[in-house]
Design brief:
This protein has 301 residues and is of the alpha/beta class. It contains ten helices and eleven strands. Strands 2-3-5-4-7-8-9 form a seven-stranded mixed sheet, with helices on both faces. Helix 3 crosses helix 8 and helix 5 crosses helix 6. The radius of gyration is 17 Å and the shape is globular. It holds the Pfam family Abhydrolase_1.
Length: 301
């Protein structure tokens, strides 16, 4: 598997992100290895809060939330998915698959970091990957937080705006990642913040991950990931693991999933689920502090 690595100096001027990266090497599933990056904050001996980002962002998305959770006494861990952030970037779209991304994050979280009593926070692809981990390794997880995400199995119709996003990001001659993130926010991002989202992708050759991910979402029952996601949903729907459903009121892509999670998941019953007002798809960017405080309260309860 051919990979690229974003030069470290690309991250020198990323604003409001003082966390030093940590790295590990994991098998790439093709006979080689991948370097995966993560950042963390809070006490090393505290139960972990594993926060997984989605497409086309990186751990920078959680910069407003990390200090709040750490100050509340939690160990916060934010990996960069393979192909994103400071993690290595396979150069071919076909090197990316849903199953590989689940396995890559499983390896980091369990084989490398040996995380237990995990609270998952998953948004966008962070939920698609994290919920598979929670379903397939329930003994590792103590709580789940789903925020503007889903677990599609190819049987549900996807929003028109998502199909337009998929077409745009897979066919654009060049990708301006910062503007794609801006398109999922209600608030106007500064030039510096947009540049922070651009930082991992100095050239289009680094963008196979962002270009590949929309095509990995199951859109028909015969998709390679459909059966595994359907099985994961079945396991999670009867799981007693507490689940906080914290969606924004302005996400046209995943918004309808909030009511479905609240209704269908056993772990979501009897919990007061917040709605984050005035936020778009990337609610960590629009209202990260508010979301973090809801998670702190969920953990306290």
């Amino acid at each position: 598997m051919q990979t690229l690595r974003t030069p470290d100096e690309r991250f020198d001027d990323v604003p409001d992100f003082p966390y030093a990266p940590r790295y590990c090497e994991i098998p790439d599933g093709d006979g080689g290895t991948l370097r995966v990056a993560w950042v963390q904050d809070g006490p090393e001996d505290a139960d972990p809060v594993l926060m997984l980002h989605g497409e086309p962002s990186w751990s920078y998305l959680y910069r407003k939330m990390m200090p709040i959770l750490a100050a509340a006494g939690h160990r916060v861990i934010c990996p960069d998915l393979v192909g994103f952030g400071r993690s290595d970037k396979p150069t071919r779209r076909e090197d990316h698959s849903y199953a590989r991304h689940v396995e890559w994050m499983r390896t980091v979280a369990f084989d490398v970091l040996d995380l237990r009593d995990v609270t998952l926070v998953g948004q966008d692809w962070g939920g698609l990957i994290g919920l598979r981990l929670a379903a397939e390794h329930p003994e590792r997880f103590a709580r789940l937080v789903v925020a503007n995400t889903g677990l599609p199995n190819g049987e549900q119709p996807l929003a028109d705006v998502w199909w337009r996003f998929r077409e745009a990001i897979t066919t654009a001659p060049e990708l301006n990642i910062g503007w794609f993130v801006q398109g999922g926010c209600r608030q106007q991002l500064s030039d510096e913040v947009r540049a922070g989202y651009d930082a991992p992708f100095p050239e289009d050759a680094h963008c196979a991950g962002p270009r590949a991910m929309p095509g990995l979402v199951p859109t028909s029952p015969d998709d390679p990931a459909a059966a595994a996601n359907k099985a994961a949903w079945a396991r999670l729907s009867v799981s007693p693991t507490p689940m906080l459903v914290a969606f924004s009121d302005g996400d046209p892509i995943t918004g309808p999933m909030a009511a479905i999670f609240q209704r269908e998941m056993r772990g979501a019953q009897g919990i007061e689920h917040p709605t984050i007002h005035g936020a778009g798809h990337f609610l960590q960017e629009d209202a990260g502090e508010e979301l973090a405080h809801h998670i702190v309260e969920f953990l306290r309860r």
